[in-house]
Structure formats: C-alpha cells, structure tokens
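**Polypeptide and fold**
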Amino acid sequence: NMNDACLVVGNETSSEADGLDHTKNVWVTKCKFLNTWQSSTTQNGVYNYWFTNNYIKGGSAKFAQRLPNGDNLHILDNVFVATDNFTGNLIEMCNYNNVWIQDNVVICGKKTSGAMSLYYNTHADTNYYQTHKSITITGNKIYNGNTGIYFNHGVADYPAIRVVIKNNTFDGGLASKAISIAGYFNTLEICDNLIQNTSGIGLCVGT
C-alpha cells in the first residue's frame, strides 16, 4: 500500500553529474507488488538490470534515469494488473540502451493511460546525449487501456537507434491507439503484431 516507489534501485539522487557512481548487476525476480502506485524506479540508472517473473497489481514499474548509466535492461515474463483507479502507465521506461521488454502480460484498468510508455527524459546536467539504442519489445500481451505502446523520442540530434516492436498482441479496449510512435528514429521495425477488438487506431507513426 505505497503511493510512490516501494523499490528504489540505484542511487536516490542524480546529483553525481559525472555519471561515475551508479548501480550495476541487479536481479528482481519472483516478487509480488500489491496495491502500489509505483513499484520500481531507477533515478540514476542501473547497468545490467533484470526485472523478471514478478507480479504487479495496482500501478506501474518505472525504469528511468537522468544520467547516462542505464544499459542492458531486461523486463521479462512479468504480469502487470492495474486497478480501475490507476491513471498512469504500467511500464514506464526512458533513456536506457539495450532493452528487452519481452513476454509480459499487461492488463490495464478502466482509467489506465497506457500499458507501456517510453520517452526521452530530461537530464541532470540538461545536456542531451544518445539514448534508446537497441530497444526490443516482443511477445507481450496487452489488454484494454487507452494506448498499448507509446514511444516518443523527441530529440532530432540523437535519434533512437534500432527499435523493434514485433509479435505483440493487443486485445480489447485501447480507445486511442494500439501502437503510437512519435519523434526521431534511425531504424524502426514494427512487424507481426496482432491488434484486435480495439476501438481506436491500430498504428500511428508521426513526429
């Protein structure tokens, strides 16, 4: 019964502007997070983070950073179930490189904004740098909600590189879009997804 992150992985501050002090090699597996608004956050980035086989009921899991430390992130085989009053996104990720979001079941509630939200975050030193290199989202099953996968990389000087969205299933609800892409990408592959029983747009790609 927590309103904010019940699991803070890595440094609790992004004041280490040199980016040298950060957490490495973390496994979170076979845990249950119940009635939490946010189950996890990574404010200063984690190198080699495995979040697998967990059950999350209530709110979101957030994987974000404000310094260039986040790399090699695996979000695998988890079950996310939103409560009807949860208005956020169940999986939130920004600025990591080498990411696999794979074989998760995501069940949105009546007010859930989206199943997955990926975006470019602001930084501790306000300088832009390359992120979102090699992102694979595959084999996930997404039910209901407003938007299934939302990915916005809004920095033209550092476009996202090698983003793959494939073999996902979107079923039911999704009043806005199943897949919504905005911003700047260098190689974007969207293929072999199943979108059915939705009332909104299946795929929207724009800037």
Observations:
- The chain is about 0% helix and 55% strand.
- The chain has a mean pLDDT of 85.
